[in-house]
Amino acid sequence: MGREFASATARWCHLPELDLRPEIVAICASSTASFPWYQNNFSSITQATTDYRELLANPEVEAIYCAVPHNLHEQFYCDIIRSGKHLMAEKPFGIDLPSNQKIMSCLVDHPDVFTRCSSEFPFIPAAQQVGKMIEKDEFGKIVEVNSGFLHSSDMDQNKPINWKRRRETNGEYGCMGDLGMHACNIPLRAGWDILNVRAILSDLVPERPDGKGGMAQCDTWDNATMFCEAKDENGRLFPLTIKTQRIAPGQKNTWYIEILGTEKSVRFSTKNPKLLEVMDYVNTGEQAWQHIDMGHETAFKSITGGIFEFGFSDAILQMWAAFLYEFKHGQPLTKFAACASPEETALSHRLFTAALESNRSNKTIEISK
Questions:
Q1: What's the CATH number of domain 2-117, 3.40.50.720, 3.20.20.240, 3.10.180.10, 3.40.50.620?
Q2: CA triplet 114, 6, 147: central angle to 5 degrees?
Q3: For residues 78 and 135, what is the distance between their CA atoms, to the nearest angstrom?
Q4: Torsion of CA 49, 55, 58, 59, to 10 degrees
Q5: pLDDT, tens digit, 9 for 90 and up, residues 293-349
Q6: Cis omega (within 30 of 0) for bond into 92
Q7: How does 304-316 read in b/e, with b if 16+ C-beta sit within 10 Å?
Q8: Distance from C-alpha of 38 to C-alpha of 34, rounded to nearest angstrom
Q9: Sign of the Cα pseudo-torsion (124, 172, 86, 65, in order)
Q10: Any idea where the domains of the chain sit in the sequence?
């Protein structure tokens, strides 16, 4: 993801109307193996270090993108915030709820530090269109919402174990911590209040090759389904189902959102990235889904024509544009053209913590406030 961000800065000329641009001046990694790629492609880099504290001491660094395993979030993020550097963090923003709360407390003590959390999928043009419909309250009474992120990264049971498959580094949340912010992003940004959850978690592959000829315990949750009761901004209740799966047969890397309402419904999946399905209801006649072909209709204007296809690297570019735009202007371009906020990560942690308890107890658990 560091290389994705770096590549996005190289493409900044694609955003002709933005009044600022990032410049990479320093890099940090635990190994120097990745340094040549950055240094060969970005002449602006003047510092390369394996000690992040050296990066924090560099007065030329104003903001940091920090992508590290979940068990390091609390230490790294708090050190960055205390240094006065602005921060683009990674999900889940702390390995567990207590860790998230400590990061949030650190932010309270340093209100001048601008911090957001990475989640690029809401910047897909179809997702932006869904956000506009939510803002305009076009759905009437919400009947049901389904959101999720499904992929097949762990379908191969002979795939060697890595840090995301170990509780000590990935956390007890498992796939919820790794994928959950993507699935929660639009519901949380919409302002829907998640009241309770009944969760079913699956540990489908309990051990994996350790890369040394033996086997290692794989002690994180592979799949999670969270059945929630939610409340919209008008106080009306509706069911919200959130899925995060690492073992999803038939899915390679699929993010989706579906909102069913009494006046309008919409659904989108990255499996068909150009297709947005909308159904407007009329008092007479048949119900019919309208198929809308989406192009490059982005939140932040691009030099790419609207008729052309949008891709993952474009979503990364749009997400970083949102981060820098809000950093400079003090507010997002629009409600949904914004990165996930620390407050939204705190809401997701309360949901995931309740989901763990629900799975243990086989009960519906209220979400703590």
A1: 3.40.50.720
A2: 65
A3: 34
A4: 150
A5: 999 999 999 999 999 999 999 999 999 999 999 999 999 999 999 999 999 999 999
A6: yes
A7: eeeeeebeeebbb
A8: 7
A9: negative
A10: 2-117, 123-301+342-366
